[in-house]
UniProtKB/TrEMBL annotation:
The keyword Mitochondrion applies. Keywords: Membrane, Mitochondrion, Mitochondrion inner membrane, Transmembrane, Transmembrane helix. One of its GO terms (biological process) is mitochondrial electron transport, cytochrome c to oxygen. It is found in: Mitochondrion inner membrane. It comes from Mycena alexandri. One of its GO terms (cellular component) is mitochondrial inner membrane. The lineage of its organism: Eukaryota, Fungi, Dikarya, Basidiomycota, Agaricomycotina. The keyword Transmembrane helix applies. One of its GO terms (molecular function) is cytochrome-c oxidase activity. This is Cytochrome-c oxidase subunit VIIa. The chain crosses the membrane at residues 14-36.
Amino acid sequence: MPIAPITGMLRKRFWLDISTGLGLGLSAGAAFWYGYELKARARQEEFYLKLEKEKLAAAQ
């Protein structure tokens, strides 16, 4: 008994895996960027702004 080829099934699974991986990766990247990174950059900018104001106040 010969075995039937499974080329179509493999191709569908490949595209499902690729699209699922890209979708999960992009959503995880967006969650990291908007959930953590932008807040961390805002804190950093506030710190350096405060430091610069203290320097200017000390120079006067």
